[in-house]
Design brief:
The protein is mainly α and 107 residues long. The chain has one domain (2-95): Orthogonal Bundle (Protocatechuate 4,5-dioxygenase, Chain A), CATH 1.10.700.10. The protein has seven helices and no strands. The protein starts with a helix and ends in a 35-residue tail after the last helix.
C-alpha cells in the first residue's frame, strides 16, 4: 500500500514523514550519493531502490558517479545484478544486459 502510494505521489508521504525540503529533494532526485553523505543508512537506500525499481549496483554506480555499464567492469562478476526487490519469478527491467560500450572517439 505505501509503496504504491509513494510511486503514485510521494509528496504527501514526505509531509507525513516530516522530511525537510532538502531531504525530500534528495529522495525525489534519487541522489544516492547525497543521501549517504547526509547520513542515510544503506539499508534504507536499498529499500528505496527496490520500490523505485533500481538494483543495488545501480545505486553503487551512481554513488561513484559512473554509468552502470562502466561500474560493472570494475566488479569481479560484471554480469551480477541483485536487489532486495527481485524474486525468481520476477525479472525487473534493470536486469536486462547492459548496452554495449560506446565506440571510441577518434577525434
Amino acid at each position: 500500500m505505501h509503496r504504491e502510494a509513494f510511486l503514485q505521489d510521494p509528496e504527501p508521504l514526505f509531509a507525513v514523514a516530516n522530511l525537510t525540503a532538502e531531504e525530500a529533494d534528495m529522495v525525489r532526485r534519487r541522489d544516492w550519493r547525497a543521501m549517504i553523505h547526509y547520513g542515510v543508512i544503506f539499508f534504507m537506500l536499498e529499500k528505496l531502490g527496490a520500490v523505485v525499481g533500481v538494483s543495488n549496483l545501480h545505486i553503487y554506480a551512481a554513488m561513484r558517479g559512473q554509468p552502470l555499464h562502466e561500474f560493472l567492469q570494475t566488479r569481479n562478476a560484471p554480469g551480477a545484478l541483485y536487489s532486495v526487490a527481485a524474486t525468481e519469478s520476477e525479472v525487473p527491467a534493470w536486469a536486462a544486459p547492459p548496452p554495449p560500450p560506446p565506440p571510441p572517439n577518434h577525434s
